[in-house]
Task: structure prediction
Amino acid sequence: KAGVTQTPRYLIKTRGQQVTLSCSPISGHRSVSWYQQTPGQGLQFLFEYFSETQRNKGNFPGRFSGRQFSNSRSEMNVSTLELGDSALYLCASSFNSATYEQYFGPGTRLTVT
Amino acid sequence: DQQVKQNSPSLSVQEGRISILNCDYTNSMFDYFLWYKKYPAEGPTFLISISSIKDKNEDGRFTVFLNKSAKHLSLHIVPSQPGDSAVYFCAADYGGSQGNLIFGKGTKLSVKP
Result:
């Protein structure tokens, strides 16, 4: 079974730009969560989508948004990029929203200059 | 304010010996705890979990202990193997779904042959 895939793996953007990251969950998984990992803050939950609906949202500004498609693929968007948005963005999928056994993708490394 | 703390950023252990990774939490409402392992350039991998109604959960070489009165949990790896060298994240949840996972900042374990 193929794992969680994230594209692109690496991205360099400048301040003020916007970026869209993509995540394809494991086949059959309907829940997708997004996390931001930075050296200072560790892994922080961004949001979770289940059956195209946002179920939970972390404590991030409105510049961070996401969506999920009918095939469970998910995208997250960051608008008006700031230097502090430089991070590893991880996507995780699970069969449903009630299980803790998430499977993580390799992440997208975003660098904002 | 960190609700889940891993106070040791790194730990070095000899192959064959026991590795003990520690995690403290502040929120008594947390009812589920998880450990993830992360290799470089890969996403975290679910390792083991424990519900707040238990004080111990074992899976092969990995055992997680939960001390609710001390708000402390630990992961024991016995015997440690060089392949266990990775960053270990402790996570906690109280929302009944993965969307509310709070992660620690991780402990880097190095197992020396």
Summary: The radius of gyration of chain B is 13 Å. The interface with chain A takes residues 32, 34, 36, 41-46, 49, 89, 91, 93, 95-106 of chain B (CB under 8 Å). The CA atoms of residues 56 and 65 of chain B lie 5 Å apart.
